[in-house]
Amino acid sequence: MWRTVGLRVLDAVPTMWLVLTLVFVTMRMLPGDPAIAVLGEKATIEQLNQFRERIGLNLPLWLQYLHFLRDSVTLNFGTSFVANFTVAQLVALNLPYTIELTIAATLIGTAISVPIGVAAAVRRGEAIDSASRIFSLLGYAVPDFFLAAILLVAFSLDLGWFPINGGGEGFVDKLWHLALPALALGLIKAAFISRLTRSSLLEVLGFDYVRTARAKGAAETRVIYRHALRNALLPVVTGLGLSILSTLSGSVAVELIFGRPGVGSMLIGAIEARDYPVIQAGVVVFALFVVVVNLAMDIVYTIVDPRIGAS
Amino acid sequence: MASDVAVPIANRGWDRAEQSVLWLLWGIIRRQPFTLACLVVLIAIVLVAIFAGQIAPYDPVAQSILSVNQLPSAKHWLGTDQLGRDVLSRIIFGARASLVLGVSAPVLAALIGTFLGLVGGYFGGWPDRAIGRVIDLLLAFPALLLGIIVAAALSSGFWSMLTVLIIAFAPRFARIARASTLALRQAPFVEAAIAAGLGHGVILHRHILPNIIGPIVVVLTLWIATAIRLEATLSFLGLGTRPPQPSWGNIIRDGLNAMFGSPWPIIGAGLAITVTVLAMNMVGDAVRDVLDPDTRE
């Protein structure tokens, strides 16, 4: 098994290289001069040249590419144009907030969706099944940023139950600031996971060993929770893993709405301020997330189901 | 995902396109009344987008200092925003941004992706492996994340969003087209066509394409809803439709910026997105059930 895990990790290296290369190509080869984009049309030639020298745009393209790879691997992206921080400091400052939000949303999403999915599968065709179907149809259709905006307007502005913006300080205050953003992302996630739980459980309930368990007289709750649900959870775990990435992309808008610090709001702020080094870092951090989450999911499969070998 | 691949034993194809469209519509309508209602809603939204100029009570970009942040009234059904623009008119015109991108991006992505998948799956070899590797990589990214990354490099606006969505969607079509083509290459009628000495172009066009078009159309209808949601999200993030041009996404952004103003821009535009995406999803599910009965729940 460890050999398989090692091979997966090794396989992520060329993937990351390909991702970084694509990022470099999109950021450097596309039309538009970053120097003019940052300094504006009115900048003098001298200013433009100074700027190009500062971020290494005067170098030959292959050298820029090598520097980009080096900077990405060492996570050294220079200094922000706007804030008086190195980019690494900015990322270190913002990253924990995004991770907190993603974890909290995943927990809330799971806590809501698995019971709904189980209830819908067990009482298939009854009212609760229809209700769960309506819940997920709505969850697929409501954009996360709209839900977040509604929660903000209703519970923070009108009722004043929750703070309007910021990330909070100290554990309790942080949780208080986290509640609404995580709820918005968690509800959207729950729409997807509850459907997955339902169909996965329904499939398992049709298997022979479930019939055997019933035949030998096991209580219905024991059949569902001990025999069926355990086996039905593998696709659910997979779905949760995949949904981490969509929660991550959803967190960009949600961070913006709640004025939370985070990688997403850092990136959007940098795009608005044309803070080139920060944009580059934000993009690389998100790309890293994708590769790492996929790698982690691969490893989880290998551990959960040893039949899946490295191919 | 095994049902993405359909392997007919004989070349059935879609003989008469006209007949197929009518058959598809009938399949949707008789299925269930709610889906029919969704279809009607969708047609209404398309009509609203086309005739926005005639329907909207005001110019969507006309500002008025005298009437800012108004609550709904007989004059302005959904009130006005912080620049005194009529919210209802902006939402009506916003349908254009949504639908134009929501339809054009998946259609172009389907054309490009299907072509790549057909060629890759049929000819194999290193181009197929190269395409496959890039497809796998792009599929690992959620469409929105890819959109944010690419939009960070490009400027905002319609063309950059179109590029983003094509890059995000085309691999999905390519994968399905490739898998179906691979399976079809072994089908007896394709082998017969090769044995009969037909050219590759003719085989691809006449024998393989008609048989993979079903799954492609299914995926196309399902991705239109996603494209509409992505357009709204990117515009909300300031990476999409450029103000002052209205889009459902940037109407919500403006509404949030004037938080202590009226909540109606947020509610109105948000409901417009929700209803459109919901209706599109339902119709997409119906199309899938008709074209691809194996996947029915």
Keywords:
heterodimer; A: 311 residues; mainly alpha; MetI-like fold; 2 domains; 78% helix; B: 297 residues; 11 helices; 71% helix
Summary?
Chain A has helices spanning 2-29, 34-39, 45-54, 61-73, 87-122, 127-141, 144-158, 171-205, 208-215, 220-257, 263-273, 276-304. By secondary structure, chain A is mainly alpha-helical.
Describe the structure.
The complex is a heterodimer of chains A (311) and B (297). Chain A is mainly alpha-helical. Chain A folds into two domains: 2-73, no CATH class; 91-310, Orthogonal Bundle (MetI-like fold), CATH 1.10.3720. Chain A is 78% helix and 0% strand. Chain A has helices at 2-29, 34-39, 45-54, 61-73, 87-122, 127-141, 144-158, 171-205, 208-215, 220-257, 263-273, 276-304. In chain A, helix 5 (87-122) runs antiparallel to helix 10 (220-257). Chain A is globular, with a radius of gyration of 24 Å. The two termini of chain A are 13 Å apart. Chain B is mainly alpha-helical and 297 residues long. Chain B has one domain: Orthogonal Bundle (MetI-like fold). Chain B has helices at 17-31, 33-50, 52-55, 87-123, 125-139, 143-153, 158-185, 188-195, 200-236, 248-257, 264-291. The longest helix of chain B has 37 residues, at 87-123. The A-B interface holds A 15, 18-19, 22-23, 26-27, 30, 32, 137-138, 140-143, 145-146, 149-150, 152-153, 157, 199, 245-246, 248-250, 252-253, 256-257, 267-268, 271-272, 279, 282-283, 286-287, 290-291, 294 and B 133-134, 137, 140-142, 144-145, 148-155, 225, 229, 232-233, 236-239, 252, 255-256, 259-260, 263, 266-267, 269-270, 273-275, 277-278, 281-282, 297.
